[in-house]
Amino acid sequence: MSSLPLTQHPTAAPPKEARPSFFYDLGDAESWLAAERVNGALPVVPEWVPVDARRLGGAADDPLDRDAIERVARERGLQPLRWPATWPPASREALIAATYAKQTGRAVAFSLAAFRQALAGGRDLGDRDTVLLAGAAAELHPRALTQALERGAVAAALDDATAAAAAAGVRRVPAVRVDAEVFHGDAGVDRAARVLAGGRGGAGGGAQRADGGTDGSVA
């Protein structure tokens, strides 16, 4: 009696975890603190997603504690702060530029340059010249960037990203989303890092789902 041939069933590959997302607003100083370290703090480089924090629909933030921001910046060896004359700035145009930079694969370079122009250089992000300087640092041609600022489709992409972030549970910036959990505040970067590394130590102290929760802010 001949033996029946064995049927080989391919083993299903384990599901991959979604890439984490880092949400930020260029007119938010705590977002700058998180932006300067998020790529190194997380075991996986996140997707950088500029959003208009004013449209997230969360509760109003506490007044900005400039002393706390400056203290953390010193402790981390960041460039000394030079607060612009106007802060927070009218950052809408800078966020549109960041959205265009994201579309061209330069979100990190542009956003860090913009943050540094504002908070280390003391420049107004509401001034188009500041936006173009940040674009030059990210190798974005000024003509192409200027055209992008005037295209409604790029502004619409920013609004879509903001709406999607709000629907995912982002209530304020900075925030890191890992799967269905959202970790708010600069401290949320550390909580997200622990979750991505395999621990769940952050879930009780800084995570929230779409129905609300707590956050971790600079204190």
From TrEMBL:
Stretch forming the signal peptide: none
Keywords, in A-Z order: Isomerase
Domain of life: Bacteria
Statement: the UniProt record of this protein carries the keyword Aminoacyl-tRNA synthetase: no
A molecular-function term among this protein's GO annotations: oxidoreductase activity
Residue span, DSBA-like thioredoxin domain: 68-195
Isomerase is among the record's keywords: yes
Region Disordered, annotated ranges: 200-219
InterPro entries: DSBA-like_thioredoxin_dom, Thioredoxin-like_sf
Protein known as: 2-hydroxychromene-2-carboxylate isomerase
